[in-house]
Amino acid sequence: MDLKELYQEIILDHGKNPRNKKKCDGFNKDAKGNNPLCGDKIHVFLKLNDEKHVEDISFEGEGCAISIASASIMTEIIKGKDFNVAKKILENFINMLKEGSKPSINSLSDNENTTIMSLSGVKQFPMRVKCATLAWHTFLHAAEDNKKVVNTEK
Amino acid sequence: MDIKEIKSKFPIFTNKVKGKKLVYLDSANSSQKPKVVIDRISNFYSKEFSNVGRSMHSLAVTATNRFEETRDLIKNFINAKFREEIIFTKNATEGINLVATTYGEKFIQDKDEIIITELEHHANYVPWHFLRKRKGAVIKFAECDKQGEVSINSIKQLITNKTKLIAVTHVSNVTGTIMPLSKIIDLAKTKKIPVLIDGCQGAPHIKLDMQKLDCDFYVMSCHKMYGPTGVGILYAKKKWLDELPPYQGGGGMIDEVKKNDISFPESPTKFEAGTLQTAEIVGFAESIRFIENIGIKNITQHEKEITEYGLEKLKKNNSVSIIGDPKERGAIISFTIKGIHPHDIATILDDDGVAIRAGHHCCQILHEKMGIPATARASLGIYNSKEDIDILNESINKCNKVFNN
Predict the structure, then answer these.
(1) pLDDT, average across residues B138-167
(2) For a designed S-S bond to B193, which of A46, B89, B188, B223 qualifies (C-beta 3.0 to 4.6 A apart)?
(3) Between vectors from CA B19 to CA B15 and to CA B22, what angle results, nearest 5°?
C-alpha cells in the first residue's frame, strides 16, 4: 500500500483544479449525493438528450481530494458518451475499485483509460472507496430520474 | 507518573500499523483497553458466567454479585447519593434516549421548550428532535462563539416559562470546550429546570461528583473510559427515577404481570429490561479500578500537559488552523490544513501509524456554524505522550509534501 498510488499527480491535479465544477447550461437532470459519516456532498447536473446521449455533465460540491477528483474525472470521461456506454464505464469503474478488475471498455481512448486508472489505487484504501464512487452513483441517480439522495451509508 | 509503564498495560500498542508504531489519537471516539479489562471479560466467561438476577444456582449468585459490584463502584466513582441512581444502558446515546422518551412522555407538552447548544453531538440533539416530532416540543440552540464557547448568557436569554429541560455537553467533542456546568446548573435551579449533561468527553478525563455538581441527569460512555463497548451509564437523581415511567418493556423489569395490568419495580430494575451486557459490565469494574489506580486527577493533569504541548506545537505549524480557542479545554484538538481535506489528512497520517478522526464528528450543526464541512481531530488518552504529538506534527508536514503544498 503506497500513498503515491493513491495520490497520483492526475488525482491531485483534478482535486485541486476540478473540471466542470459548475452548474452546466441547460441541464435537464440532476441528483444529490451525501457521505453522511464524513460530510461529503455532491450535486451532479446532466444534460441528456432524447437519444440518451450525454451532451453535458457537471458537478458542484465539497469533499476530499479523492471524491472531487473522481467527480471531475467522471465528468470528463462521460461527457459526449451515450448513456448505455456511460453506464458500462460506471460498472467497470466500480468493479475496478471493489474487485480490482481492470476496466475493459473499447470506447475509452488511451488517455481516458490512463485517467480512470489513476483512481485504481483507491482499492487499497477500503475506507476511501465510497469517496471515489459517490459522484458516479449520483450520476446514475440523475440519469435515471431517481429522486432519492445517494447515501454512501445506505 | 510513568506513562510508558501505563501504556505497556494496553496490548494494542504492541501491534504495528502499516509497519509503524501506533500513535493513537482517537480516544474521544473510543479509548483503547488495558489488559486487566480484556482479561476480566475472558475470565468471567471462563469461570463465573451465568445470567444475573434470575436463577438461584451458585453461578447466578456470583455473576449477580459481580454485576452489582460495578454499580457500586460507579456510584462511588461519580459520588452519586444512591446506587439506584446508576442505570446501565447500551451506550450514552441510549441514556439520552431513555430520558428523552420517559421524561418527554411524562413532562413535555406541545410548545414546551428544550434548550441545547450548537456544540452538541448528534446524540444530544436527535433524541430531542424525536420529541419535537412526537410531542410538538420546541428545540432552542444556545449559540457558541468563534472560540467555541457557549456563554451563560446565551443560555439565560433562551429560558422562558416554557423551558422544560436544558441538555448540554460537558466537553465538546470538536473544540474541546469544557462547559461552565456549575453556572448552568445554578441558573437552571433558580428556574427549577432540570439539566442533563452529556458526559461522554467529561467522564474519562475529569473528576466527577454528582452530589456537588447537582445535575439531574448525566450520561457516560464506558468504551471511552478504557472500558468495553456496549455499555453506557445513565446517572439520574432518584426523584426523577421514581417519577419517570419505564423505558423499554421486557423481562427483568416487571413487578407483577397480570392479564389486565402490569406493575413495575423501582429503579434501577424498572429501566433495565432484558439481559444486559453482563460480561462487559463486569469488565467495566476493572476500567474504573484502572482509572482510580492512576487517579483521575493525575489523568487530567497529564492530558492537560500533552494538550498544551500539542496546541503549542501545532500553532507553530503555519499550515495548521486549530478549531476554537476555549479558555478551558479538554484533551481534544481539532484542526484543518490549508488546501487539504481532513479525509486526506487522515489517510496520510494513517500511513505513519497515526490514528485520528476526520469528518464532522457527529456535530453537523457546529460545522455548519463554523462554515467548514469537516475537521481533523486529535484526541488524547492516558497513554499519549509528547512524542506522539511530535510524530503527529511530522506527519502533518508530510501531508503538505504529498499534496505539493
Answers:
(1) 98
(2) B188
(3) 50
A57 in Cβ contact with A45 (< 8 Å): yes
Interstrand relation of B217-221 and B195-198 (parallel, antiparallel or unpaired):
parallel
Judge whether residue A35 has pLDDT over 80: yes
pLDDT score, position A147: 85
Supply the CATH number for residue B267's domain. 3.40.640.10
Q: Please choose, from the candidates A64, A25, A17, A10, the residue with its C-alpha nearest in 3D space to the C-alpha of residue A42.
A: A64
Percent helix, strand, coil in chain A, to 5, is: 50, 20, 30
Domain count, chain B: 2
d(CA B174, CA B120): 9
B246 contacts B271 by C-beta, under 8 angstroms: yes
Which tens digit of pLDDT belongs to each residue from B48-66?
Answer: 999 998 788 999 999 999 9
Q: Which of residues 337-366 of B touch A (CB under 8 A)?
A: 339-344, 347-348, 351, 358-360, 364
Which domains does chain A show, CATH number per domain? Answer: 3-143 (3.90.1010.10)
Contacts of B236 (CB under 8 A, 6+ apart): B85, B87, B99, B216, B217, B218, B244, B267
Q: Are residues B44 and B109 in the same domain?
A: yes
CB neighbours (10 Å) of residue A152? Answer: 18
- Is the separation of the CB atoms in B300 and B206 below 8 Å? yes
Q: Enter the C-alpha cell of residue B162.
A: 416554557
- B309 and B325 share one domain: yes
B381 domain residue, yes or no: yes
d(CA A86, CA B115): 50
Closest residue to B403, CB basis, from A12, A40, A67: A12
Does residue B278 sit in the same domain as residue B320?
no
Question: ipTM of this predicted complex?
Answer: 0.89
What pLDDT does residue A154 have?
61
CA–CA gap between residue B28 and residue B386 (Å, rounded) = 18
Q: Min CA distance, A69 vs chain B (Å)?
A: 12
The predicted model gives B159-184 an average pLDDT of 98
Please give the pLDDT value at position B286. 98
Domain range for B351 is: 3-27+295-402
Amino acid identity, position A90: L
- Mean pLDDT across chain B: 97
Please indicate whether residue B363 is annotated as part of the active site.
no
